[in-house]
Design goal:
The chain is of the alpha+beta class. The protein contains six helices and eight strands. It has three domains: 32 residues; 52 residues, Phosphorylase Kinase, domain 1 (2-Layer Sandwich), CATH 3.30.200; 83 residues, no CATH class. Strand 1 and strand 2 form a beta hairpin. The longest helix is centred in the C-terminal third of the chain and has 19 residues. This is Formate dehydrogenase major subunit.
Length: 186
C-alpha cells in the first residue's frame, strides 16, 4: 500500500486528535510521577544573555559556585522565558573546560603564550592605549580643532546594560575615538 506524505499527516493528525478527545492522553500524563527538581537548592540569579543585541533575560542557577543551569526568565519583558539555541547553550560556554581563567600574553616575536596576572595586564593595557592615542592624536586639521584619534577603535557587546554602555561610549569619546561601534553609540 502506497501512502503519500499528505495522507500520512492526515492519518497521524486524526489519530492524535482522537486520542486527545478520548481523554486517554490526559490520564496517561496524570499517571506519571512528579519529577523532583534537581536544582531546588541552587542559588538563582537573573542575568542577560551576552550573545546578541536583543538582551534576553536569563535565570542562572548555581550550586557550590558552579553554574548548573541557565534558562529563560519568564518575567523578562523581551523574551518572556524563551531563549534561542545560543542562549540555551550558554551554560556550556560558562562550564567549558577549555575556557580561559587567566590573562594570556604573547610577547612580540614570541612563539608561545605566557600566563600573566591582572595586576600586570591592566596597567600595561592602559599604557599601550595612552601610547597609541598620543602617537595618533590629531588636534587640528585644516585649521579646525578636531581632537580625535584614528589609531584606536572600540567594539562593544550586548552583555552590557544601558548604564555600562553609556559609560563605555563616554570613555571612548573622551579618548577621542572616532571608530566606535556599539549599541550605545546611538
Amino acid at each position: 500500500m502506497k501512502i503519500s506524505r499528505r495522507g500520512f499527516f492526515k492519518t497521524a493528525g486524526a489519530g492524535a486528535a482522537a486520542g486527545v478527545l478520548s481523554g486517554k492522553a490526559d490520564k496517561s500524563l496524570a499517571a506519571l510521577p512528579a519529577r523532583e527538581d534537581p536544582f531546588a537548592n541552587a542559588v538563582s540569579t537573573t542575568s542577560v544573555c551576552p550573545f546578541c543585541a536583543v538582551g534576553c533575560g536569563t535565570v542562572v542557577k548555581a550550586l557550590d559556585g558552579k553554574v548548573v543551569q541557565i534558562e529563560g526568565d519568564p518575567e523578562h519583558p523581551i523574551n518572556q522565558g524563551a531563549l534561542c539555541s545560543k542562549g540555551l547553550a550558554f551554560s556550556q560556554t560558562v562550564n567549558s573546560p577549555g575556557r580561559l581563567q587567566q590573562v594570556m600574553y604573547r610577547a612580540p616575536g614570541s612563539d608561545h603564550w605566557e600566563e600573566k596576572s591582572w595586576e600586570w595586564a591592566l596597567p600595561r593595557m592602559a599604557a599601550l592605549i595612552k601610547k597609541t592615542r598620543d602617537a595618533s592624536f590629531v588636534q587640528e586639521k585644516d585649521g579646525r580643532t578636531v581632537n580625535r584619534t584614528e589609531g584606536l577603535a572600540c567594539l562593544g557587546g550586548a552583555a552590557l546594560d544601558n548604564e555600562e554602555c553609556y559609560l563605555y561610549a563616554k570613555l571612548a569619546r573622551a579618548l577621542g575615538v572616532v571608530y566606535l561601534e556599539h549599541q550605545a553609540r546611538i
